[in-house]
Amino acid sequence: MTQLRACDACSRHVFVTESSCPFCGAQLTAAPRARALPIFAGMSRAQRMAIAAAAVASQAAVGCSQPPVPHYGAPPIFEPDAAADAAQPDAGAAKPDASMSTSEPPDAGGGAIPIYGASPNPGG
Amino acid sequence: MAIDPLSAPERSQLMQAPRPRRLPLAPNAAPAKRSLPLADGARDRDRNARPIYAVWEVTLACDLACRHCGSRAGHARPDELSTAECLDLIEQLAALGIREVTLIGGEAYLRSDWLELVSHIRKQGMTPTMTTGGRGLDATRAQAAKQAGLASVSVSLDGLASTHDRLRGVEGSHAHALAAMQHLRAAGIPVSVNSQVNRLSMPELPELLELIGGQGAHSWQIALTVPMGRATDEPEVLLQPYDLLALFPLLGTLSARCKALGVRLLPGNNVGYFGPHEAALRGYMPSGHGGSCSAGQLTLGIEADGTIKGCPSLPTASWSGGNIRDATLRDIWERAATLRYTRDRTVDDLWGYCRSCYYADVCRAGCTWTSDVFFGRPGNNPYCHHRALEFARQGKRERLLLAELPPGAPFDQGRFDIVIEDLEDSTAATTPPERQRPHDPTASL
Description:
The complex is a heterodimer of chains A (124) and B (445). In chain A, 19% of the residues lie in helices and 5% in strands. Chain A contains two helices and two strands. Chain A has helices spanning 45-62, 82-86, and strands at residues 4-6, 13-15. A two-stranded antiparallel sheet of chain A has the order 1-2. In chain A, a hairpin with a 6-residue loop joins strand 1 (4-6) and strand 2. The radius of gyration of chain A is 17 Å and the shape is elongated. The model of chain A is unreliable at 36-67 and 70-124 (pLDDT under 50). Helix content of chain B is 32%, strand content 14%. In chain B, helix 5 crosses helix 7 (173-187) and helix 8 (205-214) packs parallel to helix 9 (244-261). Residues 428-435 of chain B have low confidence and may be disordered. The chains are: A mainly alpha (124), B alpha/beta (445). At the A-B interface, helix 1 of A face strand 2, strand 3, strand 4, strand 5 and strand 6 of B.
């Protein structure tokens, strides 16, 4: 799979094989290690695990795609799965508004995959 | 750089422009195409690809009349699936590996059995969500939806009140949308917002975000309005590719504001691609940047008559893979040529600027739908920040010119030409496309 990295100088994505940025000319240091899975404010550990699962599944399946967001409709679903019960909350995770929390237990074996659609439980 | 692509007179004129009446407002949909051919068997890549997200138009009936509606919704299709057929399809969705099903329309709640569908999706272990204009989503419906297990709802807000009402085609629809959000939250259903970005809504995005944050939305999804259905009837509302030069810095600013407000900004697949704000806008993705189109790889779309597509937005006429009344969902998913498209697409399938783009191998022209509705074929996507920047670097810009009007059916499309001109040449850009006499396929009817 082709890999891109962000240029430190101009923030443009460039191929990891580049020695200098084709957009701003900045010298690029040796390619960094594979990027850690994203830590996005508001995501719980379970949510990030779900993203990882989706990424692994999609890359294994098709080799090039990744969780998308659609042209219209609702934002990604990040639903806690069983693993969330044991997960420590993220220090920076946004707490769900009281009116947004659900009293229902997570779907059995829900194994939430974040693609698109609306998020029932943003804080996990 | 100014964030309003329109001058004050242009904005005033466009806001007051009457709805185009060349075509019927809500045309009756034709019956579904049936018995489409499927390949003899499935390949490994088809068996390995499994959708995890489905968007389902459960009815084409609608209580709004949005002037950008791609499906020209209004009346139910003549051959919409029965309740029993829907329940069976839900079980097939679960069996295929779908995790989340988003109900859309038309307006999903206008289908009398919509809560039965929500409940059955839940029972099958999937997450039911919904996207709505919210006009009729009152407290009673919201409470019933909560009881049925609806997990989250995305409400459409396309700007501040006057702009939203103008785009949605119904006076008061902005107030209805806000009321729907309040009813949903009161019922205990999390809400998000989705917004169309076009020349009317673009300068209002900062104020819209403040409104959304104040309404308790957890996420904000934005998508560029593209010329499908009624949106093609008013091409002057659409962004021009060079408008992205101002839009993306604005989105970068809004991304930071979203974090401060606790609202997740989620650019849709057609908000493209790979400019200097890519990391800010899509840094949450596994690779830290966007990828390509997932139609037929991770997602599928369903129309109310049982038509299956790789993406709900794709034009029906050319992207139907089959009908659930003729074949199983699995067979259509694995064996329909149109659903295989992105599984098989390579750089050699790209054309125009995208063919030789630096990001071609990663992006593959991004959103299939956007490219297809502009030019009648996928593989060359003009809604791209990187592309606009590259043209600007050469003192040029691309302008899209409507060359052929749409015939006036649900999910129909016209055809656009690309004009490359000097970046500072604003004279041509202000010439309304309809004055340039696009071909009208309905003129001889």
